[in-house]
Structure to design on (45 residues):
């Protein structure tokens, strides 16, 4: 059983990943943001 802090961390990480993925998708559609793809790759390492 995970404690509450671990649960919160997990949820936060999942939310963060979702918003980063959204940024990544938008970057693919809008090439005027070249740094987003790089940031996504850095984060997902």
């Amino acid at each position: 059983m995970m404690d509450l802090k671990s649960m919160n961390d997990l949820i936060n990480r999942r939310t963060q990943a979702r918003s980063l993925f959204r940024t990544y998708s938008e970057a693919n559609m809008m090439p005027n943001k070249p740094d987003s793809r790089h940031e996504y790759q850095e984060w997902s390492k």
The chain is about 80% helix and 0% strand. The radius of gyration is 13 Å.
